[in-house]
Amino acid sequence: MNLSGIDLNLLLVFEAIYTERNLSKAGERLSLSQPAVSNALRRLRETLNNPLFVRTAEGMVPTNHAVAIQPTIAKALDDLRSCLTPDLSFDPAQAKNHFRISLSDIIGSLILPELIAKLQDNAPHVDLTFRHVDRKGAYEMLRTGRHDLVISTELDGPGMYQQLLFKDPYVTLVSNSHSTIRDDLTLKQFCQAKHILFSLEGQGPGLVDTALARQSLKRHVALRLPHVSVIPKIVEESDMIVTLPLRMARIHSEALNIKTFKPPVEVPDLAVYQYWHSRSHHDPACGWIRSQILETCRARVQ
């Protein structure tokens, strides 16, 4: 049989007549008139080449063929209703979702330990895959569903949603044994010092360079590194200085012989957002993982 010639609404009529055993009551159930139900039944009989229901004193009695096909039709309609009705529930304790999240090492060091511990307790069957953020390809990964979330400083594209996770001020790290910088850090000392620039791309100016340029000033970037973990140790053992977000600096400079200064030039706070595409905006599972990340970040930066 060619299904393209079948009106699926006729299956709803079949279901209603089978349940009510009365054409008028079936019409009330479907908000249809009794003549409309009779017409639909006529079309069903022609399509299936069977009377389907016989009028008796007890009502519309199904034929043997109608009884035989009823379970299949009922299951098909239930499956369609389940498929087309959005499931707004999400039980993290039972969920077995696999979330794919893109973020940088910096942000990961700030939030991942607490986030993993939180999910281990509340959602033990949820799996996570973290990938290093690639800003050039991040939007496409979200658009195509290969990533559920991107946690980054800036990202743009049509159909994108964003939520601020936290802001972090910048600080300048200097060795306690620095040859010229002692109890305070002047703008002149800052510009004359050798700087380390943490840069994933390894090129281009940083936020500090942009801030200095507003005052027609420059600094000497003597070293560029794509990994932040080694930078504070280099600072401790040299006259090089570095400007990093406060919480990142704390994590990587604990127990080191280093002092912290407010940069003598105005550098905007690091603003970190989570980004997602409109394709997953109403998904309850994705909404849940976004809420867990937001709660973790807010607790972490207090």
UniProtKB/TrEMBL annotation:
Keywords from the named record: DNA-binding, Transcription, Transcription regulation
UniProt xrefs under Gene3D superfamilies: Periplasmic binding protein-like II (3.40.190.10), Winged helix-like DNA-binding domain superfamily/Winged helix DNA-binding domain (1.10.10.10)
PANTHER family: HTH-TYPE TRANSCRIPTIONAL REGULATOR LEUO-RELATED (PTHR30118), TRANSCRIPTIONAL REGULATORY PROTEIN (PTHR30118:SF15)
Keyword DNA-binding annotated: yes
GO molecular function annotation: DNA binding; DNA-binding transcription factor activity
Family listed: Belongs to the LysR transcriptional regulatory family.
Ranges of residues in domain HTH lysR-type: 6-63
InterPro entries, alphabetized: LysR-type_TF, LysR_HTH_N, LysR_subst-bd, WH-like_DNA-bd_sf, WH_DNA-bd_sf, YidZ_PBP2
Highest taxon above the source species: Bacteria
Organism per entry: Aestuariispira insulae
Name the record gives this protein: LysR family transcriptional regulator
